Amino acid sequence: QVQLVESGGGLVQAGGSLRLSCAASGIIASINAMGWYRQAPGKQREWVASITSTGSTNYADSVKGRFTISRDNAKNTVYLQMNSLKPEDTAVYYCYAGVRTTGSRYVKDYWGQGTQVTVSS
Fold first, then answer.
1. What pLDDT was estimated at residue 16?
2. Cα(14)–Cα(121) distance, rounded to whole angstroms?
3. Closest to 36 measured CA to CA, from 3, 73, 74, 68
4. 39-71, pLDDT tens digit by residue?
5. What is the pLDDT of residues 71-96, one digit of tens each?
6. How far are the Cα atoms of 49, 70, 74, 105 from residue 31, in angstroms, in the given order?
7. What percent of the chain has pLDDT over 70?
8. Which of left, alpha, beta for 10 (phi over 0: left; psi -120 to 50: alpha)?
9. Residue 70's closest CA among 54, 51, 97?
10. How many CB atoms lie within 10 A of CB 106?
11. Are residues 82 and 64 in contact, defined by beta-carbon separation less than 8 angstroms?
Protein backbone atom coordinates (compact mmCIF):
# COMPACT_ATOMS: atom_id res chain seq x y z
CA GLN A 1 0.00 0.00 0.00
CA VAL A 2 2.78 2.40 0.99
CA GLN A 3 6.46 1.80 0.48
CA LEU A 4 9.41 3.82 1.74
CA VAL A 5 12.62 3.43 -0.23
CA GLU A 6 15.87 4.60 1.33
CA SER A 7 19.13 5.48 -0.35
CA GLY A 8 22.40 7.22 0.39
CA GLY A 9 23.95 5.00 3.03
CA GLY A 10 27.52 3.86 2.82
CA LEU A 11 31.00 4.06 4.26
CA VAL A 12 32.54 7.39 5.16
CA GLN A 13 35.51 8.58 7.17
CA ALA A 14 35.09 10.44 10.43
CA GLY A 15 34.41 14.09 9.75
CA GLY A 16 32.80 13.35 6.42
CA SER A 17 29.24 13.73 5.23
CA LEU A 18 26.42 11.63 3.87
CA ARG A 19 22.96 12.48 2.63
CA LEU A 20 20.19 9.96 3.16
CA SER A 21 16.99 10.02 1.15
CA CYS A 22 13.69 8.29 1.76
CA ALA A 23 10.90 8.42 -0.80
CA ALA A 24 7.35 7.30 -0.06
CA SER A 25 5.12 5.91 -2.77
CA GLY A 26 1.68 4.40 -2.92
CA ILE A 27 -1.92 5.50 -2.50
CA ILE A 28 -1.06 8.55 -0.43
CA ALA A 29 -3.52 11.24 0.52
CA SER A 30 -1.19 13.11 2.85
CA ILE A 31 1.93 12.65 4.92
CA ASN A 32 2.21 14.04 8.41
CA ALA A 33 5.49 13.76 10.30
CA MET A 34 8.51 12.11 8.74
CA GLY A 35 11.77 11.24 10.39
CA TRP A 36 14.64 8.93 11.12
CA TYR A 37 15.65 6.36 13.69
CA ARG A 38 18.90 4.47 13.92
CA GLN A 39 20.07 1.28 15.56
CA ALA A 40 23.66 0.40 16.31
CA PRO A 41 24.73 -3.21 16.88
CA GLY A 42 23.71 -4.41 20.32
CA LYS A 43 21.85 -1.20 21.11
CA GLN A 44 18.25 -0.13 21.25
CA ARG A 45 16.75 1.77 18.37
CA GLU A 46 17.25 5.51 18.86
CA TRP A 47 15.20 8.37 17.50
CA VAL A 48 17.33 10.78 15.47
CA ALA A 49 15.21 13.52 13.91
CA SER A 50 11.71 14.41 12.82
CA ILE A 51 10.01 16.99 10.65
CA THR A 52 6.36 17.93 10.56
CA SER A 53 4.28 18.53 7.47
CA THR A 54 4.87 22.26 7.88
CA GLY A 55 8.61 21.99 8.32
CA SER A 56 9.09 22.12 12.09
CA THR A 57 12.11 20.03 13.06
CA ASN A 58 13.44 18.28 16.14
CA TYR A 59 16.71 16.48 16.76
CA ALA A 60 18.23 14.14 19.26
CA ASP A 61 20.89 15.84 21.35
CA SER A 62 23.51 13.49 19.97
CA VAL A 63 23.10 14.83 16.42
CA LYS A 64 21.96 18.39 16.99
CA GLY A 65 24.11 20.86 15.10
CA ARG A 66 25.50 18.17 12.80
CA PHE A 67 22.45 16.65 11.11
CA THR A 68 19.73 18.44 9.16
CA ILE A 69 16.39 16.93 8.29
CA SER A 70 14.36 18.30 5.39
CA ARG A 71 11.54 17.23 3.13
CA ASP A 72 10.21 17.73 -0.36
CA ASN A 73 6.45 17.35 -0.17
CA ALA A 74 6.07 17.29 -3.96
CA LYS A 75 8.28 14.20 -4.05
CA ASN A 76 7.05 12.64 -0.79
CA THR A 77 10.67 12.50 0.25
CA VAL A 78 12.52 13.14 3.49
CA TYR A 79 16.25 13.75 3.66
CA LEU A 80 18.87 13.55 6.35
CA GLN A 81 22.02 15.54 5.74
CA MET A 82 24.70 14.20 8.06
CA ASN A 83 27.82 16.29 8.55
CA SER A 84 30.82 15.94 10.85
CA LEU A 85 30.15 12.24 11.16
CA LYS A 86 31.58 10.32 14.09
CA PRO A 87 32.22 6.60 14.53
CA GLU A 88 29.40 6.51 17.07
CA ASP A 89 27.01 7.48 14.27
CA THR A 90 27.55 4.04 12.77
CA ALA A 91 24.17 2.33 12.63
CA VAL A 92 21.37 1.17 10.41
CA TYR A 93 19.20 4.20 9.70
CA TYR A 94 15.46 3.77 9.28
CA CYS A 95 13.12 6.37 7.89
CA TYR A 96 9.48 6.60 8.84
CA ALA A 97 6.44 8.52 7.73
CA GLY A 98 2.98 9.02 9.11
CA VAL A 99 0.77 8.45 6.08
CA ARG A 100 -2.93 8.84 5.49
CA THR A 101 -3.84 6.75 2.48
CA THR A 102 -6.52 7.72 0.01
CA GLY A 103 -9.97 6.96 1.39
CA SER A 104 -8.81 6.60 4.98
CA ARG A 105 -9.26 8.96 7.89
CA TYR A 106 -6.44 7.37 9.88
CA VAL A 107 -2.73 7.99 9.88
CA LYS A 108 -0.45 4.96 9.98
CA ASP A 109 3.30 4.83 10.43
CA TYR A 110 5.33 3.22 7.67
CA TRP A 111 8.98 2.30 7.84
CA GLY A 112 11.80 1.89 5.40
CA GLN A 113 13.98 -1.20 5.22
CA GLY A 114 17.00 0.56 6.68
CA THR A 115 20.27 1.67 5.19
CA GLN A 116 23.70 1.04 6.67
CA VAL A 117 25.87 4.00 7.62
CA THR A 118 29.41 3.17 8.66
CA VAL A 119 31.82 5.83 9.89
CA SER A 120 35.45 4.82 10.13
CA SER A 121 37.92 6.43 12.51
1. 98
2. 5
3. 68
4. 999 999 999 999 999 999 999 999 999 999 999
5. 999 999 999 999 999 999 999 999 99
6. 16, 14, 11, 12
7. 100
8. left
9. 51
10. 7
11. no
